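Morning run. Coffee first, then this:
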Amino acid sequence: LRSPRMATNVTISSVSCQIELFGIARLTAGKKSLLVSLPIEATVRDAIVGLIERCPELSGKVSDANGTRLLPGYALNINGVSFVDDLDIRLQAGDALIVLSADSGG
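And here it is:
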């Protein structure tokens, strides 16, 4: 006899976002990358807030004092594909962000 298949309702309430740091951001944080847990409909701005919550030493050096946007001289890239200025773009599960400073040459 086969047991009946039970339906499960799984509610996903958060997504994980990998944030890679380069240049001054990496040196200041002392980390190459970190994983932040964000609300399911998180935006790029939410990811920056999560980054600063995990690495408060970046506040005022990489982000503004409120921790809601990057300072001039820093760029944000999604998935190594596109640079973003619009902080209200919604993130998808599995998205990775890259924080680059103007001084992180190759």
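Helices lie at 24-29, 44-54. Good start to the day.
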